[in-house]
TrEMBL record:
<dbReference type="Pfam" id="PF04402">
    <property type="entry name" value="SIMPL"/>
</dbReference>
<dbReference type="InterPro" id="IPR007497">
    <property type="entry name" value="SIMPL/DUF541"/>
</dbReference>
<comment type="similarity">
    <text>Belongs to the IRAK1BP1 family.</text>
</comment>
<dbReference type="GO" id="GO:0005737">
    <property type="term" value="C:cytoplasm"/>
</dbReference>
<dbReference type="GO" id="GO:0005634">
    <property type="term" value="C:nucleus"/>
</dbReference>
<dbReference type="GO" id="GO:0006955">
    <property type="term" value="P:immune response"/>
</dbReference>
<dbReference type="GO" id="GO:0043123">
    <property type="term" value="P:positive regulation of canonical NF-kappaB signal transduction"/>
</dbReference>
<keyword id="KW-0963">Cytoplasm</keyword>
<keyword id="KW-0539">Nucleus</keyword>
<protein>
    <submittedName>
        <fullName>IKBP1 protein</fullName>
    </submittedName>
</protein>
<dbReference type="InterPro" id="IPR030312">
    <property type="entry name" value="IRAK1BP1"/>
</dbReference>
<feature type="region of interest" description="Disordered">
    <location>
        <begin position="18"/>
        <end position="54"/>
    </location>
</feature>
Length: 248
């Protein structure tokens, strides 16, 4: 879940007097709306959030080489059924498991290979299932290190939350500026998202560039996504601050 990182302590504020009617500066190449005359406070603020990955994909490989084709198939099929049954019993939906099989002949033997890809949203459940399979199947199965990533929905949530957090920080700064002069903050006249940045994180991909030597926590940290947002806002100044509200 996204975690709040304290934003940089930067405040830009400008108090506009009652007689001023200066329009809000517009970004280059865009026309800015003219704001109604009156007492205003202009403030910019920012926020930064992070979100850990919400999905992990594990690949399990197994194979068998026998002189008889049926024996090779049967050996792999029994292990595939055990893997699927173990995952289902622990709450993994059928649609989160995909199986691919490859059957070939090499000289006088038949070779059967299979790969099971399982997608997890519960990382604790993932560890329990992988530990069980290693314990029960031993060297007859190879489990790749988990690949952590974000779903598009998780990325969209992070983007919305960081924007809302930046607006909230900006409003609180405007309140503090007004309180400094004994004034009361009014309604917003303009809120403009000026800059957004995103970095880190992994997309939904079957490939992982992480070294096999990384620990589970290191893999989660490497897949953590970050986003920052800076907004500019203009609020009206209503008048003197209500002392009774100030005491509450």
């Amino acid at each position: 879940s996204p975690e709040m990182v304290p934003p940089p302590a930067r405040v830009f504020a400008e108090l506009v007097s009652a007689g001023a009617s200066t329009p809000t500066p517009a970004p280059a190449g865009r026309g800015g709306p003219s704001l109604p005359p009156g007492r205003q406070v202009h403030v910019s603020g920012s926020a930064e959030l992070s979100a850990g990955p919400d999905r992990a994909r594990v690949s399990l490989r197994l194979g068998s080489r026998k002189e008889a084709a049926g024996a090779a198939r049967s050996s792999v099929s029994r292990r595939l059924e055990y893997i699927a049954q173990s995952a289902r019993q622990r709450g993994v939906p059928e649609e989160n498991m995909t199986v691919t099989e490859d059957f070939s002949r090499a000289e006088n033997t038949y070779q059967m290979e299979a790969e099971v890809c399982i997608t997890f949203s519960d990382f604790g459940k993932m560890q329990n299932i992988c530990n069980l399979l290693i314990e029960k199947l031993g060297t007859s199965i190879t489990i790749s290190p988990p690949h952590f990533y974000h779903t598009p929905e998780a990325v969209d949530t992070l983007r919305r939350q960081v924007c809302v957090a930046a607006v909230g920080n900006t409003r609180r700064k405007a309140q503090e500026v007004c309180r400094l002069f004994g004034q009361s903050l009014g309604k917003p006249l303009l809120i403009r998202e000026e800059e957004t940045k995103e970095w880190g994180g992994h997309v939904d991909s079957h490939l992982s560039n992480s070294p096999d030597s990384l620990t589970l926590q290191e893999r989660i940290q490497n897949a953590t996504a970050y986003a920052s947002c800076r907004v500019f806002a203009v609020f009206e100044i209503k008048g003197k601050e209500n002392r009774r509200n100030k005491l509450l």
